[in-house]
Every structure is written in structure tokens, then in C-alpha cells.
């Protein structure tokens, strides 16, 4: 049960529990900062004009790159090459 709750998902994305905590926590803090920038921009439209969308774009790019790398690693593990 503990494994299912705490270890299965991090392992499915190629991370240990501690690594996943760091990565997810880092993403979360960046999302909070982007959200605060959006709220500031709502009150003061001349401030933080692109901070929220820049944050979303950067986080999306990181997730896409991480998923592509994980898929490539999985394909590499499942393919067999013979060298003669």
C-alpha cells in the first residue's frame, strides 16, 4: 500500500520519491509565482505583462521535453541491437 501511494507514480516518470518531490515542488512554486504575477497584472496592467504566460510556456516545454526523454529511454530499453 505504501509503495502504491508514494513510489509507483514517481517510478513511472523515472524518478525516486525525493527527486519527484523536488521536481513537483519546483514546478509548484513556479506556478505560484506565475499566478501571483497574474494577480498583480490584473490590478496593475502595466506590470508583469507576460510573466504568467511565460511561466506556463516554460513549464509546458519542460514537461514535453521530459516526457519525450522518458519515451526515448523506454524505447531504447525495449529495442535490441545486434552488433556483429
Key terms:
mainly alpha; 77% helix
Separation of termini? 46 Å
Radius of gyration: 18 Å
Biggest β-sheet strands, sense, barrel: none
Q: How would you describe the oligomerization state of the chains in this entry? A: single chain
Note down, in words, how this protein is organized.
- With 84 residues, this protein is mainly alpha-helical.
- The protein has one domain (2-78).
- The protein contains four helices and no strands.
- Helix 3 packs antiparallel against helix 4 (51-78).
Chart the SSEs and their pairings.
Blueprint: H1 2-6, H2 8-12, H3 17-43, H4 51-78
Helix pairs in contact: 3-4
Task: Give me a quick take on this structure.
With 84 residues, the protein is mainly alpha-helical. Helix content is 77%, strand content 0%.
Amino acid at each position: 500500500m505504501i509503495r502504491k501511494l508514494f513510489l509507483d507514480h514517481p517510478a513511472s516518470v523515472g524518478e525516486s520519491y525525493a527527486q519527484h518531490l523536488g521536481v513537483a515542488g519546483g514546478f509548484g512554486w513556479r506556478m505560484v509565482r506565475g499566478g501571483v504575477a497574474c494577480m498583480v497584472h490584473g490590478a496593475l496592467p502595466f506590470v508583469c505583462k507576460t510573466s504568467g504566460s511565460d511561466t506556463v510556456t516554460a513549464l509546458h516545454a519542460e514537461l514535453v521535453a521530459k516526457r519525450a526523454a522518458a519515451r526515448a529511454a523506454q524505447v531504447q530499453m525495449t529495442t535490441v541491437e545486434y552488433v556483429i
